[in-house]
Amino acid sequence: MNNPLLEEHHLPPFSDIKLDHIKPAVESRIEQVWSVLNTQLAAIEQGEAPSWANLVAPFEEASDLLSQSWSPVSHLNGVQNSDELREVYTDCIQMLTDFGTAIDQHQPLYKAYEALASSSGFNDLSIPQQKVITDALRDFRLAGVALPDDKKQRYGEIQKRLSTLGMDFSNNVLDSTQAWHRQFDSKESLDGLPESALASAEQTATQKELSGYVITLDMPSYQAVITYANDRELREEIYTAFATRATTGDWDNTALIDETLSLRHELALLLGFDNYAELSLATKMAESPKQVIEFLKQLAEKSLPVAKQDLQALKDFAQSEHGISNLQAWDVSYYSEKLRQKDYAISQEELRPYFPAERVMQGMFSVVNKLFGIDINAVSTANLYHSDVRFFEIKKDGEVLAYFYFDIYARDKKRGGAWMADCRTRRIRNQKIQLPVAYLTCNFTPPVGETPSLLTHQEVTTLFHEFGHGLHHMLTQMTEAAISGIAGVAWDAVELPSQFLENWCWEKEVIPMISGHYKTGETLPEDLLNKMLAAKNFQSGMQMVRQIEFALFDFLLHAEYEPDTPKPVQRLLNEVREQVAVMTPPAFNKFQNSFSHIFAGGYAAGYYSYKWAEVLSADAYSLFEEKGIFDKATGEHFLHTVLANGGAQEPMELFKAFRGREPTTDALLRHGGII
Predict the structure, then answer these.
(1) Enzyme catalytic residues
(2) Mean pLDDT of 448-467
(3) What pLDDT does 348 receive?
(4) I need a surface site. Which of 83, 137, 565, 634 has the fewest CB within 10 A?
């Protein structure tokens, strides 16, 4: 069978991939890795000294080929999901999990790495190469390589089951989100929604072969209704549907959560940790659960007074000007938007016409050109998987450094949220540099008729955020896959470049670069710009404690788990809210059942990373505030310390190399209006 997933391509051959290609390709690539390893380990067993050239390099090469076959499949599962693809994907994930466990627990391979690390040749390796080996030895141990056989087997069983649970959790969230919609015959039923949202609802109805207008739980539609719909009952209805996703019938994630927590705890105990939080921190910047909890509680202590003032102001406004004495969860966004308009005479919808997606994108490219001296151009020759997708190249001094796919519009069968994923990793291949390639994915309102996609300023910051992740992956100068780009970067530092880039969205000098009215081309007028900047920290206290609530809930869930008498998840969430929340959601809200970050993503006992890295990013940006936001020397300094080095050094060392000292929380609290 001619299988495009087994051929060597510069880029994924999306249009040629068929479902029956996937499983054979994965099986073949796994066999290739084993063949390479067995050959290399046999030579070492016969007396050949382990080295980078005869051990690490061939293993990396075979593993990279496996990644190149799998990455387009994994990506399609997120952006073009179907029942048929899901079935094949699930089978392959099971194979890949088994394979990963077998590699991680392979004693001869571990011993070969140990021998290399203790050999005289180790000191002759580059610093990045040494980091690859020391990280690999750590990961071998964290995968139970030293466990007795029965415990190794149990470890493998747990990992396989956790993999299935994560997929099921994600699928349940997607399916329950897409199963709900409401159809309306007239736009009067959607009174209050801006014209852009009405046009989108009309287009959704057409796509679903319905008349009138259709609203859904996809984020652009949900956000428009919960923020602007004058019908309070409709807001309550959509809030209830959103807050109870994945809570009933075949889509109920409750039992999956309980089993996931139990298995994670068992896994941690197997490996000699007291709980899963300790296991999670073994590869992160933070040194102990106590340090993380204290960090979050200190942030909460400083933020809570501001958050309480924010909420009281909102309650007073809703009561005095709208007669609402019992402010409910489905009222918060609605009256917050009205209060914002009263205090600052500005709304996100008023800004939207000035931020057409194409203009924002090109402006963002200009920003990073000024910062890092890179040029970004569209490329028309790539094999794409959907008509929405764009493809670009990055050049510096005329040399191509990287490529990326941009897929920014919401659509059916596409996972919600925004993310960056690696398609190709920068490394040495056949004595040449294999250029990095990234997938950048968002879920913004698509174009409607002749009207282009128009972004709120919040969505603009999301675009910059994901592009920051992309730059981390694409501007690396590392050539060892395990520490190239975001690979090998401690998870609580990985948000540094993404949150860092968001800062430019708020600069007066930058707004004209990223704005232009979609009809007239006029950049954001100064009066609107000043209002937007004045409103930057509107309800920042409430936003801060909301993130702390999620982070503390996640961390305590894993740090304080008691296997014999596990505390009900809802009870723990309620206790956390008593400590740090200023407004408690209704009892039916089952936020945890759709908390994909920690139950289907990489953030388990790590959601605190957003705040941890925000400290780093705000402090890093403060140097640009001192030197000038487009100071070339500072931009190059950030490029060559933080972005170029990937995971080759510890993030604290890279931060200190850039900033000249350890980070403080001052800039974060100042930027957020907390102090």
Answers:
(1) 466
(2) 96
(3) 86
(4) 565
Predicted confidence (pLDDT) at residue 381 exceeds the cutoff of 90:
no
Average pLDDT value for residue range 27-36: 98
Is-contact 390 467, C-beta < 8 A?
no
pLDDT value, residue 675 = 82
Q: Which residues contact 120 (CB under 8 A, 6 or more apart)?
A: none
Taking 90 as the threshold, does the pLDDT of residue 8 lie above it?
no
The DSSP code for 448 is B
Residues ≥6 apart with Cβ < 8 Å to 420: 438, 439, 440, 441, 466, 469, 470, 473, 498
Q: Which residue's structure tokens are 């609605």? A: 334
What is the DSSP-derived secondary structure letter of residue 648?
S
Strand, coil or helix: what is 75? helix
Q: Is 70 exceeded by the pLDDT of residue 227? A: yes
One-letter identity of residue 512: P
* Phi, psi torsion values for 336, nearest 5 degrees: -65, -40
Q: Are 636 and 477 in contact (CB under 8 A)?
A: no
Instruction: Copy the structure tokens of residue 219.
Output: 């984020």
CA dihedral 501, 419, 4, 84 (to 10 degrees): -170
- Tokens 């920014």 locate to 408
State the number of CA atoms in the 13 A half-sphere of 325 facing the CB. 0
**Residue 1 scores a pLDDT above 80:** no
Q: From CA 609, how far away is CA 612, in angstroms rounded? A: 5
